[in-house]
């Protein structure tokens, strides 16, 4: 099951090439490949420095060099928070947020980003971890949400005719000839 999840995340990372350098993509892939089972369980305050640097793989060696001189509690926290960084980076790739001075709107946009990411995880889990393009999923999700709003809006009888025609076209409802014959009398 972890292999399917890792393959799915790798496929998401493969479509990330827009706006990211190769080094950033490589760093993301390194973080993904390092699962919790591969990480040695370290209790804060019990880091073993007896192991030589040569025994560690190259990736582990760079990480331990980076955390030298850091408190053990902070070191253990930073080593195990890969998932948080990955979610934050994936949410920022296809971000729905807009500049706003209203804090409530900013929170709404962040919640929308996270809920779309969670919806994608649930959707792929329901499809037996079959790879799904994140971009296509977000487009389909946004269109589904827009259709619900458009149907609700179509119930309003005081909409301008052009807007009603556009909504019907968007929803795929046939546009009937609904024009009235007026007498040209003032």
UniProtKB/TrEMBL annotation:
Species this chain originates from: Spodoptera littoralis (Egyptian cotton leafworm)
Superkingdom in the source lineage: Eukaryota
Pfam families named in the record: DDE_Tnp_1_7
Stretches for region Disordered: 25-62
Protein name (database record): PiggyBac transposable element-derived protein domain-containing protein
Domain PiggyBac transposable element-derived protein: start-end pairs: 72-119
């Amino acid at each position: 099951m972890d292999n399917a999840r890792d393959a799915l995340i790798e496929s998401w990372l493969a479509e990330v090439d827009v706006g990211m350098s190769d080094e950033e993509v490589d760093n993301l892939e390194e973080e993904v490949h390092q699962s919790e089972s591969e990480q040695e369980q370290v209790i804060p305050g019990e880091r073993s420095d007896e192991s030589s640097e040569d025994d560690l793989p190259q990736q582990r060696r760079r990480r331990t060099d980076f955390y030298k001189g850091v408190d053990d509690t902070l070191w253990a926290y930073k080593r195990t928070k890969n998932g948080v960084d990955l979610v934050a980076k994936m949410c920022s790739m296809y971000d729905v947020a807009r500049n706003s001075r209203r804090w409530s709107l900013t929170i709404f946009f962040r919640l929308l980003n996270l809920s779309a990411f969670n919806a994608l995880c649930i959707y792929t889990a329901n499809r037996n971890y079959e790879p799904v393009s994140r971009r296509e999923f977000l487009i389909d999700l946004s269109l589904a949400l827009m259709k619900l709003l458009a149907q609700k809006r179509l119930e309003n009888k005081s909409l301008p005719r052009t807007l009603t025609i556009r909504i019907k076209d968007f929803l795929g409802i046939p546009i009937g000839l609904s024009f009235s014959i007026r007498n040209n009398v003032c």
